[in-house]
Amino acid sequence: MNHVLRVTRRGLLQSAIGLGAGIAALGAGTRLAFAETTLERAKEQGFIRVGFANEAPFGYATPDGKLTGEAPEVAKAVLAKIGIPQVDGVLTEFGSLIPGLKAGRFDIIAAGMFINPKRCAEINFSEPSYGIGQAMLVAAGNPKGVKDFSTFAGNKDLKLAVMSGAVEVGYAKDAGVPESQLVVLPDQSSLLAAVQSGRADGASLTALSIADMAKKGEGVESTTPFGEVAGKSVKGHGGFGFRKDDTDLLEAFNAELKKFLGSPEHIALVTPIGFGKDYLPNKTTEQLCKGE
Prior knowledge:
The longest helix is centred in the last third of the chain and has 14 residues, at 247-260. A hairpin with a 5-residue loop joins strand 4 (60-61) and strand 5 (67-68). The strands form five sheets. Strands 3, 6, 7, 8, 9 and 17 form a six-stranded mixed beta sheet that branches. Strands 12-11-13-10-14 form a five-stranded mixed beta sheet, with helices on both faces. Helix 4 (70-81) crosses helix 11 (247-260). The chain has three domains: 4-35, no CATH class; 42-131 and 237-289, D-Maltodextrin-Binding Protein, domain 2, CATH 3.40.190; 134-233, D-Maltodextrin-Binding Protein, domain 2 (3-Layer(aba) Sandwich), CATH 3.40.190.10. The protein is of the alpha/beta class. The protein has 13 helices and 17 strands.
């Protein structure tokens, strides 16, 4: 009767003793079973966990608990095509998404996360699924005359709300906004509340997120979207995050994602969420990881 000896590929290389024991076991009729990859496990179990940060319209949970938004919906469609029919969401503060992925709390980040060199150093990204600029959430009527980050850099009395771990923190710094003027908050609802209460004179996120907040929140509106900060393009491209060693999962996901993006099926799926043909990406992950 054969017995299964479960070891990892790495473990087989750790010592000559371990290798010798493995060979001896094989000689005794034992077979080796290598540890499953994340892709193999997910296909076998029929589900995979994704991290999201409750930032509409990128990835969020509805009041009845449904996981939706651009990133989760695209992920569901793509993963179904590679044989993973169920997607379970793990709500995570935005700044904890990368640590949570690396710690194994979930296997994919599906939160519309912008692809940039710093993040590329920590995790792998799929090809981008959208490209979009920035906007500011302000009080109705825009009483402080907020236009973009330069408004805050030019008036030390104004406070700008930004989300912890998001790219807007860096944009503010590049524009010359000192940390003393920043109100760093954990999530989208906190940004809205800060502007509504007057704790902040504006809040910064992507144009789609700000438009959604303005539509749902009372007493607030969106500024005109903008695509440059301090003379540099801030059109962000978002993608899906993967652990560095999950290369087969990334390759399978990318293969289907490339065929899916821009298709009638894709446009029909994301248009009601606020995305569409005008938000298709125009850069590759390779370019974005190089900072181009």
